[in-house]
Amino acid sequence: MTTYDAVAAQERWQAFWEQDGTFVPLDDGSRERRYVLDMFPYPSGDLHMGHAEAFVMGDVVARYWKLRGYDVMHPIGWDSFGLPAENAAIKRNAHPAEWTYKNIETQARSFKRYGLSLDWSRRLHTSDTEYYRWTQWLFLRFFERGLAYRKDSMVNWCPNDQTVLANEQVVQGHCERCGAAVTKRKLNQWYFKTTEYAQRLLDDMEQLEGHWPDRVLAMQRNWIGRSEGAYVDFDVEGHDGPVTVFTTRPDTLFGATFFVVAPESELADQICAPEQRGAFEEYLEATKRISDIERQSTERPKTGVFLGRYAINPVNDEKLPVYAADYVLADYGTGAVMAVPAHDQRDLDFARTFDVPVRMVVDTGQPDPAETGIATAGDGTYVNSGDLDGLTDKASGVTTMIDRLEAAGRGRRAITYRLRDWLLSRQRFWGAPIPIVHCPQCGDVAVPDDQLPVQLPDLRGEDLAPKGTSPLAGPAATAWREVACPSCGGPAERDTDTMDTFVDSSWYFFRYCSPGFADGPFDEADLARWMPVDQYVGGVEHATLHLMYSRFFTKVLFDMGMVTFTEPFRRLLNQGQVINEGKAMSKSLGNGVDLGEQIDRFGVDAIRLTVVFAGPPDEDIDWADMSPASSLKFLQRAYRLAAEVTSAPGTDPAGGDKDLRHITHRTIADVTQLLDDQRFNVVVARIMELVNAARKTVDTGTGTSDPAVREAAEFVTLALSTIAPYVAEEMWAALGGAPSVANASWPSADPALLVVDSVTCVVQVQGKVRAKLAVAPDISDTDLEAIALADPGVQRSLDGREVRKIIVRAPKLVSIVPA
Ligand code: ANZ
Ligand code: ZN
């Protein structure tokens, strides 16, 4: 039997692609361009099953678009700064670069073996000085525009990694990296002003609608968390000036019965009456030990402390007791709320615990919240609400109240966002140093562009051990840290924090467009040709991290006039995960599947085919249900078909088996559409069907010399090359094609072969078959009826009788009952 040798084929074609530069784009303007991008890997160990899934999806798209005649860019690089390298360096008393670049080499070898159609000439590593020089350069542009700034604030602190974390890196109160419970610390940190772009991050989602998974857009929308409402000013006894609250329900102001401030806010401290100071401080200490998640939980009983003061309701001058309670957060809205227990469940829970009155001001028809303990929301008739009384919908209630507050100078329309500024400084070593010098005379001074990069000093092993401050602030880095101020020349110190690695990854896709460019982060002309990315592939876990940050960076660069578009990624695919025995693979469960070992056993093609065939690309794959052995069997079958073709290349298929030609062209049309729609698993099913159909012709029909068999085998090869590239190259060679199959062109289906010419229609008269008609498959009932009645055989058997009843079931049956 003819078989292909998977391993030999892999080595042969890898070498060919590399020498031939098969996957280096022409970039000469002769073809339309397409940019396919996979989220670049972090170099921890070798590639795993997750990479196998993510990268094969991008590769199918890239290979398909190349066959379709596009000039495709499909680059690769590494997100190579970050904590694990530093932790490994501490353990081995080495430099983080050693671990990093060794792992990169291992992964690079595996990527090549995995048959990805990558352009290696654009390779980048974010930890290379040539790269992070431009990360620093970009930081300085943000700094100049006031978009990078320092402030003191309570920050998320990971006690295990000994570093601060961005809000996005805290998952349910735990460190996204190591899982330790996150605590709070007051620190001076660097931020990017993402909040200034909140509305544009929302508005520009319009460009992504229908092209990004709905789930990701919803997550981003939620994360940005736009709320419309009003600011309302309350006077508070013993407090200078009004205290402002943010509310989404200004229309319920007459129902306010108390007032709450966040315990850790400055406000609470200012408002607290002397006799309540002791109780307040005790409560404040307790608050610090509780995570934001717990604080917002609706399950937790409400706690708080009376501050001994009253706020005055601006619409009716009522005195509202002021509490500090942890269900109000300091960093949302203004950190103070007007509490309306009848219409807000959190306020109602608090009111019932603290015995505060509940006053309904919107009658929604539901029972009184004071009795049920269930707050009511939504439209209703306003009651006990002054000039709002009698209104019946929320929209007019809100407008009327805001107009009234504005007229009285006690409030105004407001929009708030849940999104916070991006905390970007890290107290760790293995990242891009923040290019700022702190001068006692001049303050924060930017390192001049011509002095970039600010290179990391040569620290290793123990120098890097976490001590709560950056290793760059430690004794081993003194010589690096102490510099002359770029502005006055006096003694000054470098900033000792490094940037979050998400800064590195917020612009790498730009760098691919002009690798090695020495005069800036990228050449704007190159960018204009390649960007935006046509297809981005990566995990959904980046929805509110990398994908949000990259969008933010792109908008800032747009405002700087450096790019001409506002969204970096046109289309996004979130691949599913590979799990095993119904669970995520993990060391502790011992259910890990080793990609290298799978490839050794079945070959790259069979693994790639298995992953693609498993299901829709965005669904999880349970490896326990997969059979790479049957994938390999199918590939051998496909190979045998191509190897057995004996007709010469270029033979006109016109004289070939008609039925097979119909199937081939239907498959071409369908597979083209399926690839456009990214229904890759169905593509595999259709290729399998075509192989079976061609096999049947070979075995029972006109045999291996039939040109229709060649036509089918050629398309099988092309379609298969997007998924199983090595066997496809072997098949292409067997068919006499010029290497590589990746350089071949995609056929289009012949419309004439897409229509099935005719079907047979049976015509019965009084239950007896009187005629068999060849008709078009899409014939209408009316036409079919006319043709049937005109048939001479039918006419004969009717013999002049009238038709009493006629049943037409186009295109297969006509049944006539004569009178
Ligand atoms: C009075 C009121 C009456 C409210 C009512 C709601 C319903 P979203 O939609 O999430 O923006 N709030 C404001 N600042 C807060 C803070 N720092 N911590 C906790 N809660 C805060 O929520 C806005 C609503 O959440 C605001 O509207 C306020 O309660 C509360 F029938 O004001 B509302
Ligand atoms: Zn100075």
Automatic annotation (TrEMBL):
Keywords: Aminoacyl-tRNA synthetase, ATP-binding, Cytoplasm, Ligase, Nucleotide-binding, Protein biosynthesis. InterPro entries: aa-tRNA-synth_I_CS (IPR001412), aa-tRNA-synth_Ia (IPR002300), Leu-tRNA-ligase (IPR002302), Leu_tRNA-synth_edit (IPR025709), M/V/L/I-tRNA-synth_anticd-bd (IPR013155), Methionyl/Leucyl_tRNA_Synth (IPR015413), Rossmann-like_a/b/a_fold (IPR014729), tRNAsynth_Ia_anticodon-bd (IPR009080). It is found in: Cytoplasm. This is Leucine--tRNA ligase. Its main location: cytoplasm. It is an enzyme of class 6 (ligase). Belongs to the class-I aminoacyl-tRNA synthetase family. GO terms for molecular function: aminoacyl-tRNA deacylase activity; ATP binding; leucine-tRNA ligase activity. A motif ('HIGH' region) lies at residues 41-51. The keyword Aminoacyl-tRNA synthetase applies. Residues 657-780 form the Methionyl/Valyl/Leucyl/Isoleucyl-tRNA synthetase anticodon-binding domain. PANTHER family: LEUCINE--TRNA LIGASE, MITOCHONDRIAL, LEUCYL-TRNA SYNTHETASE. Residues 40-181 form the Methionyl/Leucyl tRNA synthetase domain. The gene is leuS. GO terms for cellular component: cytosol. Its EC number is 6.1.1.4. HAMAP family: Leu_tRNA_synth_B. It catalyses: tRNA(Leu) + L-leucine + ATP = L-leucyl-tRNA(Leu) + AMP + diphosphate. It comes from the Bacteria. GO terms for biological process: leucyl-tRNA aminoacylation. It comes from Raineyella fluvialis. A motif ('KMSKS' region) lies at residues 584-588. Residues 419-623 form the Aminoacyl-tRNA synthetase class Ia domain. Residues 221-395 form the Leucyl-tRNA synthetase editing domain. ATP binds at residue 587.
